[in-house]
TrEMBL record:
InterPro entries: Pantoate_hydroxy_MeTrfase, Pyrv/PenolPyrv_kinase-like_dom, Pyrv_kinase-like_dom_sf. This is 3-methyl-2-oxobutanoate hydroxymethyltransferase. It catalyses: (6R)-5,10-methylene-5,6,7,8-tetrahydrofolate + 3-methyl-2-oxobutanoate + H2O = 2-dehydropantoate + (6S)-5,6,7,8-tetrahydrofolate. Binds 1 Mg(2+) ion per subunit. It is found in: Cytoplasm.
Length: 277
């Protein structure tokens, strides 16, 4: 199987064929999403919350993200791999952004990097593109700066706020990004944006008009406890299946049903007698 190219993704968009993106965070989840036939895999900094147990995406470090991202790379062949640059690893200067993105490429084999927001991130995006690094922009709800946005809530709910999201998207497109993620905005904002852009737009909580959709692996498979955002649809209940499996194992250890003879090694003929002497 050959790796998809950005040209293949653009061709899907141009043909009106929906683009499927999902997150993954380790070798088995990468193999699972590859087997399911997705187009794009993001090692999201959502890893901070769903894999590492932090309360937000802010604390996760570049080294933590690189370890997870390199494991995903080892499990993927065909989909394009996007590395999410964590909070604090790209904002301060173009030089810092380029150095961090180069680590994701050299140490974790990503095809593209994703950075959040408009504002100063537009300049960082331009610098990365000029350095030959393909970039995914991310507008609307940007979790790394959610505090400044008033929390984890939909963005662009007034005409002015919607225009600000659209302006960020257009500025990123002008800076040369290859793709946009639009998170948690009313469908009308995405509908207004689509005719203005000619790069693939991947939505998450952004309605049905985007060129593709992305969801977090743990959300769509029902792996973690607790509630999820309005836009999450659960396609499986792996947490319940996993608890049932581990509980059955615990029960069988406690009642002696496991291990059975078929799970046990035996000595060759005669050796057991010699052992007893
Ligand atoms: O970190 C993440 O998983 C993301 C997607 C939800 C777009 O940024
Ligand atoms: Na992210």
């Amino acid at each position: 199987t050959k790796r998809l190219t950005l040209g293949d993704i653009a061709a899907k968009r141009d043909a009106g064929e929906p683009i499927v993106m999902v997150t993954a965070y380790d070798f088995p989840s990468a193999q699972i999403v590859e087997a399911a036939g997705v187009d794009l895999v993001l090692v999201g900094d959502s890893a901070a919350m769903v894999v590492l147990g932090y309360d937000s995406t802010v604390p996760v470090t570049t080294d933590e993200m690189l370890m997870l991202t390199a494991a995903v790379r080892r499990g993927l062949t065909r989909p394009l791999l996007i590395g999410d640059l964590p909070f604090g690893s790209y904002e301060a200067s173009d030089e810092i952004a380029i150095a961090t993105a180069q680590r994701f490429i050299k140490e974790a084999g990503v095809d593209l990097v994703k950075i959040e927001r408009g504002g100063t991130t537009v300049e960082r995006a331009r610098a990365l593109v000029n350095a030959g690094i393909p970039v995914v922009g991310h507008v609307g709800l940007t979790p790394q700066t959610a505090t400044a946005l008033g929390g984890y809530r939909a963005q662009g709910r007034t005409a002015e706020a919607a225009q600000a999201v659209i302006d960020d998207a257009l500025a990123l497109q002008a800076a040369g990004v290859s793709m946009l993620v639009v998170e948690a905005v009313p469908s009308e904002v995405t509908a207004a944006l689509m005719p203005l852009v000619d790069i693939p737009v991947i939505g998450i909580g952004a309605g049905a008009d985007a060129d593709g959709q992305v969801l977090v692996f743990h959300d769509l498979l029902g792996i973690h406890a607790g509630g999820a955002a309005k836009f999450v649809k659960r396609y499986a209940d792996l947490r319940t299946a996993a608890i049932d499996g581990v509980r059955s194992y615990a029960d069988e250890v406690r009642d002696g049903a496991y291990p059975a003879p078929e799970h046990s090694y035996r000595m060759p003929e005669g050796e057991a007698a010699r052992l007893k002497g």
